[in-house]
Amino acid sequence: FWVDLVLEVEADTRKELENEADQDEAERAAAPAIAKGMLQVLVVEARNLQPVHGIGTNPYVRAVVGQQVRKTWTAWSNLRPAWNCIMEFSVVSLGGSLELEVMSQAPLFG
Fold first, then answer.
1. Tens of pLDDT along 50-73?
2. β-sheet bridge partners, residue 90
3. Which residues pair with 88 in a beta bridge?
4. Residue 60 class from Cβ within 10 Å (0-12 exposed, 13-18 middle, 19+ buried)?
5. Three-class HEC string of the chain
6. Between 7 and 74, whose confidence is greater?
7. What is the pTM of this model?
8. Distance between CA atoms of 26 and 68, rounded to whole angstroms?
9. How many angstroms separate the first and last alpha carbons of the chain?
10. pLDDT band at 93, cuts 50/70/90?
């Protein structure tokens, strides 16, 4: 049972990453011709996360630049995740901001 669940979660995570990669490609293709370049953000890890409602946490990082949104993969039941994930954003204006949030995804069951 647990092995099947782990495999399903890993397969879902791969599908999410593939879908996000497709969305990234579409956003880059739709980026205006006046783009000034690319911003690369390396999300390394989180430390000392607190359990959500005392039952653990499923953290991921959500990054926003303008209308562009990127997410890391979800680190299931982990209070010290290491993502080592690179996010890329098209830069149109040098006056924009980068917002990073550590979020917790709801469990698959329960």
1. 887 766 789 999 999 988 999 999
2. 38
3. 40
4. buried
5. CHHHHHHHHHHHHHHHHHHHHHHHHHHHHHCCCCCCEEEEEEEEECCCCCCHHHCCCCEEEEEEECCEEEECCCCCCCCCCEEEEEEEEEECCCCCCEEEEEEECCCCCC
6. 74
7. 0.66
8. 11
9. 15
10. confident
CB atoms within 10 A of CB 13: 14
**Mean pLDDT across the chain:** 77
Q: Is 72 exposed, middle or buried (0-12, 13-18, 19+ CB in 10 A)?
A: buried
Token pair, residue 85, equals 């994930």
Compute the average pLDDT of residues 32-43.
Answer: 79
Amino acid at 6: V
Count CB neighbours of 32 within 10 A. Answer: 7
CA distances from 41 to 20, 28, 85 (A): 16, 16, 8
Q: Which two tokens stand for residue 1?
A: 């049972």
pLDDT at 102: 92
